[in-house]
Amino acid sequence: MAKTNPGRFFEDYQLGQTIEHAVPRTVSGGERALYHALYPARHALYSSDAFAQASGLPGSPIDDLAAFHVIFGKTVPDVSLNAVANLGYAEGRWHLPVYAGDTLRSTSEVIGLKQNSNGKTGVVYVRTRGLNQRDETVMDYVRWVMVRKRDIDAPAPETVVPTLSKSIAASDLVIPQGLTFADYNFTLAGEPHRLSDYTIGEQIDHVDGVTIEEAEHMIATRLWQNTAKVHFDATFRPDGQRLIYGGHVISMARALSFNGLANAQMIVGLNAGAHANPCFSGDTVKAWSEVLDIAETSAPGVGAIRLRLVATKGGAPFVLRGEDGKYDPNVLLDLDYWALMPL
Amino acid sequence: MAKTNPGRFFEDYQLGQTIEHAVPRTVSGGERALYHALYPARHALYSSDAFAQASGLPGSPIDDLAAFHVIFGKTVPDVSLNAVANLGYAEGRWHLPVYAGDTLRSTSEVIGLKQNSNGKTGVVYVRTRGLNQRDETVMDYVRWVMVRKRDIDAPAPETVVPTLSKSIAASDLVIPQGLTFADYNFTLAGEPHRLSDYTIGEQIDHVDGVTIEEAEHMIATRLWQNTAKVHFDATFRPDGQRLIYGGHVISMARALSFNGLANAQMIVGLNAGAHANPCFSGDTVKAWSEVLDIAETSAPGVGAIRLRLVATKGGAPFVLRGEDGKYDPNVLLDLDYWALMPL
Amino acid sequence: MAKTNPGRFFEDYQLGQTIEHAVPRTVSGGERALYHALYPARHALYSSDAFAQASGLPGSPIDDLAAFHVIFGKTVPDVSLNAVANLGYAEGRWHLPVYAGDTLRSTSEVIGLKQNSNGKTGVVYVRTRGLNQRDETVMDYVRWVMVRKRDIDAPAPETVVPTLSKSIAASDLVIPQGLTFADYNFTLAGEPHRLSDYTIGEQIDHVDGVTIEEAEHMIATRLWQNTAKVHFDATFRPDGQRLIYGGHVISMARALSFNGLANAQMIVGLNAGAHANPCFSGDTVKAWSEVLDIAETSAPGVGAIRLRLVATKGGAPFVLRGEDGKYDPNVLLDLDYWALMPL
């Protein structure tokens, strides 16, 4: 009996199937420190227990994207080991902050299947749920990937494509219990801009750039226990390059967005996301944002801002697609998310 | 008086001498997170407090190899600063798991001395013991190294070569108090294979590979406070290469072995080990294992598996030695250890 | 309204102005582990809770230089974003050890202003104070930087150059409450040399060297939330090189100085410092020290040693300046500090 995991192929997924992913993970101050060492992350609520406590939380949580990476990483051996492409995200919501000492695990439900017309691959839609040690849902999101078939002659399953929201309604965002920005300290947070200072359609060039190193993206990706070969083994791709985990680019761009969005504190919704072009060591990642929507929430002083976050590896800011409608070759990431910001 | 440490030379060792090594070390969640960031480590018992507690432990320990590295690192300034070669390991046993908050220190007893026939070097055998803040032995092992003489004319000591076990008897392995695999969750652990699924002589190709970066092996080696020049200073060797700490290769190979040996949870015995060839930045490390023995233990549901773990930097799996009996040039490590696995 | 921080220009500073710097930071065992992973730090008091407790402290503090970097990093967006040069440090004192769980923030008072004769830049002197979550001063120091003017025609402010001590008097050093070296364990600390073994004028070559990698200095610099572009963005400088944060060189040199100064445990005073030449990836950093002064303190068994610490990237030790009085091109750092050492 072969002992190693060959990963699932398209015909191994069934609609409605639930996959319990392996290797639960307890996070600590170590993960938090590493997150700050790997990304230029400065959002005060994730940097300071005192700031988080003044915002009504028991302490500073692990960065929302770190929680996402841990939950996502567990799905890789079951969902994307034989994936040709990571096609999209939708309906991502953070339900609970994650604190040092919490143990995270993940499960995924297969909610859609569609064989491609070439007969060689298919698209698998999963709704992944991250759970803590009390079996509470920490976050959930839908992801769809294109997966190879093991046997080209395997019959195609019935096509089921789930209906997914283009964007989470502001009223469906989960606001962490007790959160308040009523006494928000803009000086300590780093910028004076409150929600009312932003307008829909406004674009922000985050100015700073970070040149990516192999050691750093591998350290990050391993930390989330995402062990897909393509990120680590320089002999795996014919070109000898290690493909950088898309989540590394997400975290880098989000951290860079501090400069102009220092008060977009907590990420609570992931509406959509595309890894437009691959990122490799040596690329210098920059970021720009566009305000897509603005909303109130039920928590004191807390508003919500919907942002497009674009990571690039060159070129001018605010360029997203060419005339052909395709992503500009310098665009790495196009992410659509909701964050919480003081009113 | 010269203030810097020149290291000990062969004639500085006396049989029966005990060396108390410097710089005790308190470990925390930081060391644990870094271990997971530096190696693709996924064994559930070291990743999740909840999983460790379900196995009868108070929480998730620091990886056994991390404990080994901390203990080993302290011996370097006293044992191997003037070493020409690290020749072997034997009789290594882990006595107690190490938890965040524990403080480790090391002592070594000289148990053998043998001057080489060239008169320029000699072999020193030490039994090293790692102790925690309660002076309990955490692990012990024998190591022998070839060390330069300071003065070629110094008289040779009486030759004493200790008798060392080829392998620790399964009955001599120390099983952590309270450990049970009676309710072991194979799904969360990542693989269904239990001890009875493995057969003596079985070989497993762990498939995955990691290309080594300078920054990573230096971060790792420093974390264990192993500060041997050769690992850090590119001007030290004539070829300008930094030799990678052998322990980095051990941990990398062990972590890669998750894929096929996810249930070989705790390392409890180190029977033998050879760093067959040097490893340098740019090498892509892969690993394969061979089952050498299988045994029962006194703990509920807990068996022991003796494994040969081979790290390579290329070539086909399962190639160990050439026709001349020498290690294949692609073999980096040949390690013989005992791990605990659910029956 | 532009949302990103353009940094302050020379004419934006007023004498007596107090700047409250953003993004407070809670440190944990993660920061401590990373410090040991990034630098070959082995001073026992920062490595072992047990050793620190035997010295009268509640536990092992975060390295004094890590505390300095955290406090310094917060000032970068307000003080040195448009700096042309970091000119000097003076009157730095550590007032309280920092422990895991402490939250640090920084404030700076403008204590001097002097426009340069070229009319394009000026020198700003600030006294920076690091505070913990109880608003206690953790450390303070004076720094002066040359900053660009935004508008060359802006009128020059009145010139005020503060009078700064060349060196802190030993009697003004703050000794941590409860500190004692009465039962100091020289074996565990790593070297037998006590204060009386050192003589003023003595020079020590620390022997070891570390070749610098891009990934490492970026990880370190980000950890202190110092996000100056020049350290991270390879497209920022015309030569495509990333300038290494001067504090990285300070920490590297201090850690290397363990070999010969293992008992110079706690840093309590920063008398002066110059970043003599820039450091880049690929440089091999070595260090040497010179004993500048020796003093007693009020704490049991605790003396103070004033040291010049010089980091180099090549050349022979003990070379500081050329015949023209300028720093030798191989000198990276010239630091003058006080440390506590057993009598």
TrEMBL record, chains A, B, C:
Annotated Pfam families: MC_hydratase
Superkingdom of source: Bacteria
InterPro entries: HotDog_dom_sf (IPR029069), MC_hydratase (IPR048274), MCH/BMMD (IPR052342), Thiol_ester_hydratase_Rv0216 (IPR016790)
PANTHER family given in the database record: BETA-METHYLMALYL-COA DEHYDRATASE, MONOAMINE OXIDASE-RELATED
Name of the protein this chain belongs to: L-erythro-3-methylmalyl-CoA dehydratase
Organism of this sequence: Thalassobacter stenotrophicus DSM 16310
